[in-house]
Fold this sequence. Notes:
It is a single chain. With 103 residues, the chain is mainly beta. The chain has strands at 4-8, 14-15, 30-34, 38-46, 58-65, 70-75, 84-89, 95-99. Helix content is 0%, strand content 45%. Strand 5 and strand 6 form a beta hairpin.
Amino acid sequence: MELTVFRCTQCGTTLFPARYLCPHCGADQWAATPAGPGTVEETTVVRHRVGAQGAGDAHLASVRTAAGPVVVARLDQALQPGDIVTLALDDAMRVLAHPHAGA
């Protein structure tokens, strides 16, 4: 499922996740917008996860979406800052980042 971000219909502020009210203008109307591809800004590796012993490392990244907001996403492989990724949601509604096919 494609990742969606939310644009305030009054002032144009784009956020993720959705909010009840826009923090910039106070409006409560949002338009869902595709996040588009993103650029990896920072990465980290979680090596020890409580309740997930033996599950391997979890690679995470802060990704700036083409629409503007930064999201934290799980990676299927180690990536570097500056890499272009495609963002999606899995069945558990976790944000996933995959290397962009055109990169």
